[in-house]
Amino acid sequence: MKKSITILSLIAGMFFMTAFNPIKDDIYTVDVERSTIEWTAKKVGGGHAGTVKIADGKLVYSGKALKSGNFQMNMSSITSDNARVTTHLKSDDFFSAEKNPMSKFEITKVTAAGADRVNITGNLSIKGFTHSITFPATVKQQKGVVVAVASGIRVDRTKYDIKFRSKTFFGDIGDKAIDDEFELSINLTAKKS
């Protein structure tokens, strides 16, 4: 009986310590100079690749686990492997960079998937349209720095009103078609605030 009371007292004590001393969230600010976002898009007979700069962002840790975060992309910074394509990407046919200068990703859920591996779900906002996407990532935290890497993130551009040369909307476009999906590779480095 005494042993049961002692165990219950320990459990109650741990509960009260946790309730009144919750784990404090640690905020890591994205280092925009050391972080990159690369994109690739395919079309019949080829494709293009480029980058877009991160404007700002943060990752929030609770204890040893990624809890939440967000980052913004400066759409006027988008580049491609072709100067004409770069200009076109900023136009209303694609990202309308002048009217919609920022795109945003906000983490809504993080699920553990093994050592340093997680599945991230979040809301991607482009041109005023927001849709949920999920992708695997590797996230490492050490010595006041977090590095988060994800590649092959598939985004359906038509969900964000980017329909230029889409077979879904222009079935008779033939070999001028551009794939509806493009891919992002994200490499974030964030420092403890």
Question: Can you offer a commentary on this structure?
Answer:
The chain is mainly beta. It has one domain: Lipid/polyisoprenoid-binding, YceI-like (Lipocalin), CATH 2.40.128. It has 2 helices and 9 strands. A hairpin with a 4-residue loop joins β5 and β6. The longest helix has 19 residues. The protein is elongated and about 60 Å long. The protein starts with a helix and ends with a strand. 22% of the residues are buried. The model has no long low-confidence stretch (mean pLDDT 91). Keywords: Signal.
Taking pLDDT < 50 over at least 5 consecutive residues as the criterion, the unreliable ranges are none
What is the total number of structural domains? 1
Could you give the distance between the termini? 49 Å
**Main sheet characteristics:** 9 strands, antiparallel
Helix content: 10-25%
Question: What name goes with the CATH superfamily?
Answer: Lipid/polyisoprenoid-binding, YceI-like
Which term fits the overall shape? elongated
Round the mean pLDDT to the nearest integer and report it. 91
Series of secondary-structure elements, N-terminal to C-terminal: HEEEEHEEEEE
